[in-house]
Amino acid sequence: MTGKTHIGVGLLTAVVIMDKQGIGITPLSILICIFASILPDADHPKGVFNKYLLPVRNKTVKLAIYLGLGATIIGMNYLYFSKPYLYGLGTVLIMIGVSSHREGITHSLIGFIAIVYIVGYGSQGIDALERKRIIVSLIAGYGSHLLGDMFTNRGVPLFYPFNKKKFKMPATFKVGSGVGNLIEGIIIALGIIYLTFKIPMMVINMN
């Protein structure tokens, strides 16, 4: 799926879950959901996420940037902080650096669980309700990305690095094809209609 579709599906998923749980929605939770919805594509040097991170969008620069960030975080954590989640973050960044698009950790359950753990552990101490919104937004955005990509013909390696087999749904479409663009266009249109009415109502109910 394209980045825009992933964002739309992620927001839609988060709003539905938050509405059912009655926890409301905030600008921060929306931003986190958008971030999480495109985060799995950090393994692609030309993905939406890397558009704002990499000075030059190619595999060599992606490898250098992510390896450098990961090693720096691990080194600084070893010297000064000793926080388990920072070791996890550094390791994830290094694995993103060496991964190819949909061939590595960001499109796997291991990556998904690692990111949720890092954010969940790192957000301890903040308001309990806001923390719940953050975690729900993260799970909705990231999880819907993996699920959405399973509807494309390339699938995702859910059990990487233990198994590189790619999993996909019985019915799939090719991203960028006529059928694929139609499906994604319909999803985005319906999502916009729903979110346009639902988000203001959730905000009103919070006040």
Name its key features.
single chain; 207 residues; mainly alpha; 8 helices; YdjM-like
Describe this structure in words.
This protein is an all-alpha fold. It has one domain (3-206). It is 67% helix and 0% strand. The chain has 8 helices and no strands. α1 packs across α2 (27-38), α1 runs parallel beside α8 and α4 runs antiparallel to α5. The protein is globular and about 50 Å long.
Helix and strand topology:
Elements: H1 3-21, H2 27-38, H3 48-51, H4 59-81, H5 84-98, H6 109-122, H7 128-149, H8 178-206
Helix pairs in contact: 1-2, 1-7, 1-8, 2-7, 4-5, 5-6, 6-7
- What is the total tally of β strands? 0
Describe the biggest sheet?
none
Low-confidence stretches: none
Helix and strand run: HHHHHHHH
**Fraction of residues in helices?**
55-70%
Quick structural gist:
Pfam families: YdjM. By secondary structure, the chain is mostly helical.
